[in-house]
Design goal:
alpha+beta; 9-stranded mixed β-sheet; globular
């Protein structure tokens, strides 16, 4: 499988994490999805046990497409019903030297959110202004900051060509 260079890299819990703005690799399976959901003037986040305030994310269920998983996870964690999340890249996490997990990443704009299904793991939902993310988001580092910046440009100025 060939990829361009990652946009940004980081180390999370001794695992190398990279973010690519490439098409999702056809020869890989997605492990989980991540959805950057924008509403009005901020990011909609869920309070997830053992993580804190994060964007909707979760594992892809058997038989589910990555887009279906993004729609489901967004509803389950922030109560937003979205129809067409827009893919914009993926995370590649090194589990070992030869093993990786791939996480397709989407952005969307939501008009309403917050009515959580009974089966949710989310303890709450709120909007965080971009300026407040570094102090309130679960794990904040250069990789997370870069991906939020890309997602923000895509949600607010979707015709911008200066994304990297």
């Amino acid at each position: 499988m060939s990829h361009r260079e990652p946009i940004v890299t980081s180390i999370w819990d001794s695992q190398r994490v990279e973010f690519y703005m490439d098409p999702f690799p056809e020869d890989t399976d997605g492990y989980a999805v991540i959805v950057f959901a924008w509403s009005d003037d901020g990011w909609v986040v869920a309070d997830i046990p053992n993580r804190g305030w994060v964007v909707p994310s979760g594992r892809i269920e058997p038989g589910e497409t990555v887009t279906e998983a993004a729609i489901r996870e967004t509803y389950e964690e922030i109560g937003a019903r979205i129809e067409a999340p827009i893919y914009f890249g993926y995370y590649k996490i090194a589990i070992s030297k030869e093993s990786f997990r791939y996480m397709p990443t989407f952005h969307c704009t939501v008009a309403t959110y917050g009515e959580l299904p009974a089966s949710t793991e989310s303890r709450g939902v709120r909007t965080i202004l971009p300026i407040d993310l570094p102090n309130q988001y679960w794990k904040w580092d250069g990789l997370v900051e870069t991906v939020f910046s890309i997602a923000e440009k895509l949600c607010i100025a979707p015709n911008s060509h200066d994304l990297k």
